[in-house]
């Protein structure tokens, strides 16, 4: 049972990867990334996001051709763990072209997102 | 007098396509007349020109175009403009100085003439997403941005092309649309800046003319026009 649940947890970003229980969404915020269309590169380093994320209120505030990053903070009530999910996408008119998502538990990044 | 934009140099295009064919035909004739028995002469007059022709068609044009693109970029910067945005399209390169409202263009079929022009000469710019088909067949195989220079010359720069049709929400199409949107936005912004600087220059000129009339100082008008030209 627990094995299947662990497998299922792989496909659920909002499930805790250690205890496989659903996590609570505590905060979400939209940011702009200083990366232009045609020049996207995948970056796994959380410090990059701490240094480069630019807070915006709505999608229309993001300049044309600029990548956006949707951040979600999840908290696991069972193991008291907080995880940040970053979804990087390119806003194109009324659509979103999702590039990738990162799940990060870096403390610095989580504190940055909490205080933003 | 501002230079007229020529997208295709007919002589270059014809030469590019037919010159190797003519040279090959001449070499084959020479081979037929002089080296009917084969040998090194026959190889030199048949195989070598054929290979050179294929190499020319495959790499020659793009090599010249790349060199001319680099030259345009250097010239653009040497004339005091900043390349805020450069788009290397298939067969066209467009570079923009958004603040000063200037554009540099070079065409594949006319590589020996590159143009640096004020964006006030562009009457409109728009995106063509190439949407076609209906229902589940709806999609596109080409996304491009276009602009009209001097009211009658349309320049199309492809941001995405394919021999297949992709759905409109496909990654390739969305990226192409985003690139085209970005270029159109920058062209529009450059055009506004160019029009503003043009207006301010012309208003400065007219203001100078009125002061000249009142004071009858012909030399100051020359200086002012020099300033506005700068």
Q: Can you walk through the features of this model?
A:
The complex is a heterodimer of chains A (116) and B (230). Chain A is of the alpha+beta class and 116 residues long. Chain A contains 3 helices and 5 strands. In chain A, a hairpin with a 4-residue loop joins strand 3 and strand 4. The longest helix of chain A is centred in the N-terminal third of the chain and has 9 residues, at 2-10. Chain B has 230 residues and is of the alpha+beta class. Chain B folds into 2 domains: 11-78, no CATH class; 79-203, PH-domain like. In chain B, a hairpin with a 4-residue loop joins strand 2 (92-97) and strand 3.
Q: Which secondary structure elements does this structure contain, and how are they paired or packed?
A:
The complex is a heterodimer of chains A (116) and B (230).
Chain A: H1 2-10, E1 24-36, H2 46-52, E2 54-56, E3 66-76, E4 81-92, E5 95-104, H3 107-115
Antiparallel strand pairs in A: 1-2, 1-3, 3-4, 4-5
Chain B: H1 10-34, H2 40-78, E1 85-89, E2 92-97, E3 102-107, E4 110-118, E5 122-128, E6 140-149, E7 153-166, H3 171-215, H4 218-229
Antiparallel strand pairs in B: 1-2, 2-3, 3-4, 5-6, 6-7
Helix pairs in contact in B: 1-2, 3-4
List its traits:
heterodimer; A: 116 residues; alpha+beta; five-stranded antiparallel β-sheet; 3 helices; B: 230 residues; PH-domain like; 2 domains; four-stranded antiparallel β-sheet; three-stranded antiparallel β-sheet; 7 strands; 53% helix
């Amino acid at each position: 049972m627990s094995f299947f649940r662990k497998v299922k947890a792989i496909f659920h970003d909002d499930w805790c990867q250690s205890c496989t229980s659903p996590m609570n969404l505590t905060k979400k915020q939209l940011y702009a990334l200083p990366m232009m269309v045609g020049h996207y590169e995948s970056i796994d380093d959380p410090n990059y996001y701490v240094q480069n994320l630019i807070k915006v209120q709505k999608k229309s505030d993001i300049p044309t051709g600029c990548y956006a990053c949707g951040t979600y903070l999840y908290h696991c009530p069972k193991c008291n763990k907080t995880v940040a999910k970053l979804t990087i996408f390119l806003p194109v008119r009324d659509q979103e072209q999702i590039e990738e998502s990162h799940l990060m538990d870096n403390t610095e990044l989580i504190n940055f997102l909490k205080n933003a | 007098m501002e230079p007229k934009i020529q997208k295709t140099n007919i002589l270059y295009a014809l030469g590019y396509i037919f010159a190797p064919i003519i040279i090959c035909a001449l070499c084959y004739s020479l081979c037929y007349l002089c080296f009917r028995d084969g040998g090194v002469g026959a190889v030199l007059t048949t195989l070598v020109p054929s290979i050179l022709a294929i190499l020319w068609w495959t790499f020659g044009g793009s090599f010249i175009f790349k060199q001319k693109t680099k030259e345009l970029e250097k010239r653009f910067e040497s004339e005091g403009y900043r390349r805020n945005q450069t788009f290397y399209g298939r067969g066209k390169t467009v570079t923009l100085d958004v603040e000063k409202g200037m554009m540099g263009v070079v065409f594949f079929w006319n590589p020996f003439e590159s143009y640096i022009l004020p964006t006030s000469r562009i009457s409109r710019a728009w995106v063509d997403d190439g949407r076609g088909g209906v229902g589940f067949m709806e999609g596109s195989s080409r996304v491009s941005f276009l602009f009209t220079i001097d009211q009658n010359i349309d320049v199309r720069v492809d941001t995405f092309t394919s021999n297949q049709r992709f759905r409109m929400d496909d990654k390739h199409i969305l990226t192409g649309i985003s690139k085209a949107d970005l270029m159109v936005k920058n062209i529009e912004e450059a055009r506004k800046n160019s029009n503003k600087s043009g207006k301010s220059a012309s208003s400065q000129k007219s203001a100078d003319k009125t002061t000249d009339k009142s004071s009858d100082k012909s030399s100051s008008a020359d200086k002012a026009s020099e300033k506005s030209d700068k």
